[in-house]
């Protein structure tokens, strides 16, 4: 019996040794990375984001913050390369490429998106937002989110809104009041709302590509145009148009978009990461916009541009009422929602 016990004890010891060796070969030690495995993981997806503004413009800075957040939160699995300055084409052609899935992301003004979701037109109606705070109260509401979601039928998905400030009129001629706009030839975007707006204010609406505005001001084809302060500054239009009247007639935001094709490639978890990263990048973009606006105002005033702030918008609002009444009927529910978040 004693011999048998010794034999069994020996077998158990041997088994334990073998088991320990096997565990050492197939357990945690095997899974631990070698010193040469510390290289960054190769991206599963490399996407492109198109923006037509310069590299230091607030929307591009917002784009880059978004890309950075996505890269961090996916541990490098999703890489987004930002292409500013219209490198991938103008806004119209880029938007077409996003619909096709050839370009994955873009940043674009909300106005052209009304072609794909008619309700977005409400964001471009004049004098519907009293301030930036009023605008963002609406954009961040359920109705504002619904406008972004409404783009899915056109093979795009809206991720977030970016700030674009407010638009006002500037001219080569003195503009101190509403009466001074009468008869002036003012460049507008190719938009029925904008044409109706300018005509209702007594001016002559002149649709023209943005790139032709500077020469139009130089040659007198137009007397003025309308835009936000950073664009008035960066376009150099102030070199010809030395007068601006701040009526803040529109506060149309920018939109960060993803192609539905690219969206569908992502897992549900990654979709949530991309969406949240877009929303989180808004703070950076808004901060940069505020800085740029302040810098532009100082630069323009130093360059001799005369600023006139409209103290009472009532006459302006009354002047455009007949022209935009049709839109108020069409977008009643949305306009009620805008009114409710003042």
TrEMBL record:
The keyword Signal applies. The keyword Lyase does not apply. Keywords: Signal. InterPro entries: DctP_fam (IPR018389), TRAP_DctP (IPR004682), TRAP_DctP_sf (IPR038404). Gene3D superfamilies: Bacterial extracellular solute-binding protein, family 7. It comes from the Bacteria. GO terms for cellular component: outer membrane-bounded periplasmic space. One of its GO terms (biological process) is transmembrane transport. GO terms for molecular function: carbohydrate binding. CDD domains: PBP2_TRAP_SBP_like_3. Residues 1-23 form the signal peptide. Pfam families: DctP. This is C4-dicarboxylate ABC transporter. It comes from Peribacillus loiseleuriae. The lineage of its organism: Bacteria, Bacillati, Bacillota, Bacilli, Bacillales.
